[in-house]
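Hi support team,

I've been running sequence recovery on a batch of backbones for a student project. Most finish fine, but this one hangs at about 90% for roughly twenty minutes before it completes. I'm not sure whether the input is malformed or the queue is just slow. I've pasted the structure tokens below so you can try to reproduce it. Let me know if you need the job ID as well.

Thanks,
M.K.
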């Protein structure tokens, strides 16, 4: 019986073990009794249990007495610990006192107790309500989560029907019969409705219910569904089978499919095309691509062809969506209708590369196209830089509205006259461009230039006016292997155009390297002028203006004079042009005004005569906001009155400078219209502007006595001027014949080489008798 007992039994005498049964050997891991017999009893007891063991043995006073059952830990032969409950009995062994120890293995009991504690902790800390009921549905257990969910304390629900505490009909038996899981609406103690998932299982003494409160989840799902439904973006969920499982209203609206018709369709039935209009293959559809890669794809642009025939551009974002238990992901795709945005983008891109007035290519597009063209190694490229001759006169005399219409007509004509593959552009102002690759010989290019000029020179009518436009064309031919950049080719064509202008209106010229040298020389000359101004080497000279009736000097025209150290005297017109290009005209003009006012004031005092001081003003000077103050200060310092100063303004600039002219006239300063007749002069313009003198352009004076047209033109100008009480002065008188004709026509004043050339103030005389003879 001892050997077969499940309890471990051992006998120890004087501290040493003298007997063990099989169960005791199993407890400590011994295979044979000799592994234990003879060892000290404390060797088989864990250190923490030894004191209790010895105390228990010491309490046994008489044979047959028992100690109280005590838990202790045995130490196995391999060092592990085994929990046992032991009880000692005082007995005899071979006639000598001994102790018999009976041990019960507590391992299974301990594990069961631990399991129960874990289960209790699990139930106590679970977030879901766990309710146990009797077979007839009375509550027998109610965890803390149930208290939180339903708002009832434990002592309030024990023995109460479960339907009563959850606020709704509830039969655990029926839930189990329905498969063990149902969705239900319960109510908490304060009447709040709860969306609950109820799971039920039968126990040996009733039922256990797990009630998961999904109220927040259901609310979130409803809110999510509302958000998805109200999105402007379409949303599609394509399931693992390739069929659409979810589609919001925007998806139906954008795709043109009736509401509710998308769900259940295979995704490939939606016809998608790429940006080039090619149908998207089935294997390249968003759902297929995302399933292959497992990654989110954003910003893919496709075109959908709707059933009503309309095309819409979409921007897609697709990503995988793996639900629990799925081996193949679903694909969630959202898409925005970017049709309008794309149209706006294309329009902006067009506007960024095209001239808004003529709708021709602008400088940016022209240069980009030129870069692509010259990059092709076997092509000859021809660049034509086209400028309208004297277009500024049209703008100044007829207005910018007429000028803009002229530019539109010229653009249309250029587009019609150029080849279908040629690029026609407008660079700005009245500058146009033609880039062609259809010609390899210079003779062919000349023929094209002649064709373009003839086509553009045909008369055009704008606002009832018939106009004729001549063009100057600069031409560059870039053979294969030409190393010039697009910008350099354009610059060279521009240079050739300016060269063409030197030949006269309506001409063209091919670029030659010498042209660039001329530009460089011009740049050097500009720098030399800048240095000359800084060093005070630009002189002021004076040219008399003489009354043709009396020969008296009535005014002195002050001019700048520059004697270049290498080139010698620079022509005054060229000097003004160089100064204007180099932004020096304002500085030089102010110096000439100040010097002339002071010197002429002193000369008048010395000779006891009266004459005006005439100084030219450029458009740039008229735009200077300090001009009025400079003029007033200069007159005060020189001791002259406003009426003693005449500011000469080019006729073509008068219209744009009307405000500045009016401001000057209000101070009493006189204003002369220079080069009158070179533009589109009219009596209306003379009446609108508050002028004192007009100066007939030297080109008309030069033709007097040579051309039969010159005299009527000059006579007409004088008639218009005299009609509004203006004084007329002839510019550039060089011959006696010109002077005689001017006398006969009744011209008031004159100046020029025949009257007196420009010179220092010392050469001025009060009268020039030869002028009236």
């Amino acid at each position: 019986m001892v050997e077969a007992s499940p309890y471990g039994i051992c006998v120890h005498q004087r501290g040493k073990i003298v007997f063990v049964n099989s169960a005791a050997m199993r407890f400590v891991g011994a295979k044979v009794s000799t592994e234990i017999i003879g060892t000290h009893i404390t060797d088989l007891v864990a250190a923490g249990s030894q004191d209790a063991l010895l105390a228990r043995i010491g309490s046994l006073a008489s044979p047959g007495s028992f100690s109280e059952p005590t838990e202790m830990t045995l130490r196995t032969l391999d060092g592990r610990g085994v929990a046992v409950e032991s009880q000692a009995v005082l007995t005899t062994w071979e006639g000598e006192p001994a102790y018999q120890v009976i041990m019960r293995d507590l391992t299974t009991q301990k594990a069961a107790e631990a399991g129960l504690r874990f289960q209790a902790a699990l139930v106590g800390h679970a977030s879901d309500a766990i309710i146990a009921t009797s077979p007839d549905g009375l509550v027998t257990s109610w965890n803390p989560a149930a208290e939180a969910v339903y708002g009832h304390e434990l002592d309030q629900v024990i023995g109460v029907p479960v339907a009563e505490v959850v606020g709704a009909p509830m039969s655990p038996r029926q839930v189990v019969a329905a498969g063990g899981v149902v969705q239900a609406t319960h109510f908490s103690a304060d009447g709040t409705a709860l969306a609950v998932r109820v799971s039920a299982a039968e126990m040996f003494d009733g039922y256990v219910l797990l009630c998961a409160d999904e109220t927040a989840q259901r609310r979130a799902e409803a809110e999510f569904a509302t958000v998805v439904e109200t999105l402007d973006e379409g949303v599609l969920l394509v399931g693992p089978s390739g069929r659409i499982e979810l589609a919001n209203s925007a998806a139906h609206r954008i795709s043109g499919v009736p509401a509710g018709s998308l769900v259940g369709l295979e995704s490939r039935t939606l016809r998608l095309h790429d940006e080039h209009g090619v149908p998207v293959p089935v294997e390249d559809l968003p759902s297929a691509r995302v399933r292959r890669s497992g990654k989110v794809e954003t910003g893919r642009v496709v075109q959908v062809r709707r059933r009503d025939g309309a095309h819409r551009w979409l921007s897609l974002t697709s990503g995988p969506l793996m639900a629990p238990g799925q081996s193949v992901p679903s694909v969630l795709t959202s898409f925005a209708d970017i049709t309008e945005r794309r149209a706006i983008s294309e329009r902006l891109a067009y506007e960024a590369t095209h001239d808004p007035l003529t709708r021709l290519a602008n400088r940016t597009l022209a240069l980009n196209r030129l870069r692509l063209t010259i990059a092709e190694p076997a092509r000859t490229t021809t660049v034509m830089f086209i400028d309208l001759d004297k277009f500024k006169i049209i703008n100044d005399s007829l207005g910018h509205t007429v000028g803009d219409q002229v530019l539109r007509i010229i653009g249309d004509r250029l587009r019609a006259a150029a080849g279908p593959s040629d690029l026609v552009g407008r660079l700005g102002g009245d500058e146009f461009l033609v880039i062609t690759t259809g010609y390899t010989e210079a003779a062919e290019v000349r023929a094209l230039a002649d064709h373009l000029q003839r086509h553009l020179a045909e008369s055009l009518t704008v606002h009832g006016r018939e106009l004729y436009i001549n063009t100057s064309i600069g031409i560059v031919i870039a053979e294969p292997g030409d190393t010039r950049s697009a910008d350099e080719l354009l610059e060279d064509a521009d240079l050739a155009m300016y060269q063409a202008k030197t030949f006269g209106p309506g001409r063209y010229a091919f670029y030659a390297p010498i042209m660039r040298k001329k530009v460089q020389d011009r740049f050097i000359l500009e720098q030399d002028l800048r240095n000359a101004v800084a060093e005070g080497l630009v002189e002021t000279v004076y040219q008399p203006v003489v009354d043709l009736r009396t020969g008296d000097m009535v005014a002195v025209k002050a001019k700048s004079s520059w004697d270049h150290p290498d080139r010698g005297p620079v022509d005054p017109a060229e000097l003004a042009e160089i100064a204007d290009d180099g932004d020096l005209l304002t500085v030089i003009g102010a110096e000439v005004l100040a010097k002339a006012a002071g010197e002429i004031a002193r000369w008048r005092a010395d000779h006891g005569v009266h004459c005006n001081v005439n100084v030219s003003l450029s458009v740039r000077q008229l735009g200077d906001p300090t001009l009025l103050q400079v003029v007033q200060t200069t007159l005060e310092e020189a001791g002259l009155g406003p009426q003693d100063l005449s500011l000469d303004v080019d006729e073509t600039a008068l219209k744009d400078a009307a405000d500045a002219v009016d401001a000057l006239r209000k101070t009493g300063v006189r204003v002369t219209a220079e080069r009158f007749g070179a533009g589109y002069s009219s009596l209306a313009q003379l009446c609108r502007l508050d002028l004192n003198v007009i100066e007939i352009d030297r080109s008309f004076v030069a033709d007097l006595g040579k051309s039969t047209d010159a005299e009527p033109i000059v006579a007409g100008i004088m008639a218009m001027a005299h009609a509004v009480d203006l004084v007329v002065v002839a510019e550039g008188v060089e011959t006696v014949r010109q002077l005689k004709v001017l006398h006969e026509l009744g011209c008031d004043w004159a100046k020029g080489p025949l009257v007196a050339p420009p010179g220092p103030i010392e050469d001025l005389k009060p009268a020039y008798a030869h002028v009236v003879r």
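--
Follow-up from support: It reproduced on our side and the slowdown came from queue contention, not your input. The first helix runs from residue 22 to 28. No action needed from you.
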